[in-house]
Amino acid sequence: MKRYFIYLHISHFNSLFYRCNRLVLIGHTANKQLATKLDKEEIEKVVGEPITDFSISSGAKKGDNVAGTLLALKVTTASGKELNLVYKGFPSHDPKQKQFVVQFGIFRTETSMYEKIFPRLKELLELRKTVKNKELPIVKYISGFNDDQNDYVCLEDMRPEGYIMQDKFNSLTLAEVSLYETPGDRGTPSQLKFIDFQLSRRGNIFEDLGYFFWTSTTPEFRSQHLDQMLSFYAKSFENTMDQLDFPKPEGFSRGYVIDKFYQGMHSAYLYMPFALSLQMCDLVEAKEEQAQNGTTKKEDEKNNQNGSQSGPPAIDFDAMMKEEKRMMMIRMKTSPRALQRLEDLTREAVELNLLV
User: Fold this and answer.
1) Angle at CA 92, nearest 5°, toward 317 and 65?
2) How many Cβ atoms from other residues are within 10 Å of residue 23's Cβ?
3) Which of 87, 125, 192, 273 is least surrounded, with the fewest CB atoms within 10 Å of its CB?
4) What sign does the dihedral 37-42-43-45 (CA atoms) show?
5) Does the reported pTM lie above 0.85?
6) Structure confidence by residue, pLDDT tens digits, 131-183
7) Cβ burial 333-349 (10 Å sphere, 16+ → b, else e)
8) Which tens digit of pLDDT belongs to each residue from 36-85?
C-alpha cells in the first residue's frame, strides 16, 4: 500500500482536497549547519514537554529544493512517547535565501495555515452534519515560531507510517492524479497528505489546475486523460460544496471547468520555463554552476547586508527578476530532463495553437 505526500499551493479553500503540485521551494542549506542549534533544551521547546533522548538526521536528499533546512527528528519524551518529527528550519546561513524567506513571509504563512486557517476549516467541517469525512488530509502540526531570524515549523513525520514522496522527475499516474482516498492492494496509492503550505494563497483555481497539469503530467498523459481528470475535478468540487451545504458558483459545471481551463492554458504555459527549471533541476549542480559564474562583490555585499538586517527588507523586483532569469537559465543548463520536458510541452502548445 502506497501513501503519498503531495506538495500543495492553495488558491481556493474549496479545492483543498484536489489540487496539488510537486513544486518545492528554492534553495538548499546543509542540514549539519543547523543541527548543532537543536540541543535537548531547544527540542523540548519544540515538542512542548521534557524529553529523555533524541536523534537528528537529514530530512531531505542532497539536491532537493527546500527553502531552509529540513531535519528528521526522533524523540523520546519523559512520558514515554516515541515521536517521529520533521523540523523545517530558517535558512540562517544563506543570505540570499534568508532574504527570499523574509520578504515573502513563507514561514509566517505556513504557521498561520496550521494555527489559524486549518482549525477554522476543521470547525466548519464539524458544523456540517452532511460531511462524511471530517479529518483534513494534513499532517499533525507540533509547533512553529516566527521572528524572521529563528523561524521553524515542526510536523509529524508520516514516512514511518508508509507515506512516500513521488519522484519529482516522473509524471504522476492516472491513479495518483485522481487519488483522494482510494483503498487498494499493496503498491497501489491509498491515502494522501497535503504538505508544504509556505506559499499558500487564495486565488483563481484555474491557475493552479493549469500549473498542476503542465508541471506534473506528461503530454501523453494529457492527451489521454486531461478531460477525464477535469471532469473528475468538477465532480469532486461539486460534491465538496454539497457536503458543506454551500451554493455552487453560478454557472459552474463540467463544461465550464473544461472551457475555463483551456482558456487559461496560454498563461500557464508562459510560467513553465520558471516552474519546470525549478522543479526538475539538480539544485546542487545549479548552485555549483552559479558559484563558477559568480556574483559581483557589490551584489554579495548587498545580499549579506539584507540578510543581516532585522525585518523584511525592501523588495527590489527588477533586481529579483534579473537574478531569477539568470538562475532559470542555469537550472535549465544543468538539467537536461527539465529542458526536454519544456521542449515536449512547447510542441504540445504549438499543436494546441497556444502560441499563435
Assistant:
1) 70
2) 23
3) 125
4) negative
5) no
6) 888 889 999 999 999 999 899 999 999 988 888 777 667 777 777 776 554 44
7) ebbeebbebbeebeebb
8) 478 999 999 999 999 999 999 988 766 566 677 889 999 999 999 999 99
